[in-house]
Amino acid sequence: MKYCLACGEELEGRVDKKYCSEYCKSAYHYERNKQKEKTLFKKIDDQLKLNRKILRKYNTAGKATVRKTVLHNKGFNPKYFTHGWRAKNGNLWLFCYEYGFMAKTENDKDKYVLITWQPYMEK
User: Fold this and answer.
1) Tell me, what's the pLDDT at 34?
2) Which one of 75, 90, 109, 114 is most buried, counting C-beta atoms within 10 A?
3) Cα dihedral sign, 23-49-64-119
4) Are residues 25 and 74 in the same domain?
5) In 10 A of CB 71, how many CB atoms?
């Protein structure tokens, strides 16, 4: 007698059947994939998404200045960004999708200036 790999229920039907339902099949593979170690791609993608979420939260007006420690405490990692843009004045802005940041020191405090991508930046 064979039993479902997910719930242990007795199987009926085909000889090579492994699951009693589509739900059990899906649940089994979901749990199995959760236990696998994340790939490098997945780790980078997760960090980029987290960075974007944090930048979006602290940049509601289109431009903002925030202390570095505030963003870093939320899990922001400036080493992960999608692209860069150099302004006419030479400043390099790094972006996580449409939200950009630039490191700045003001009054001996490390900060990030946050901006949102604008159409003129494509030139």
Assistant:
1) 83
2) 114
3) negative
4) no
5) 21
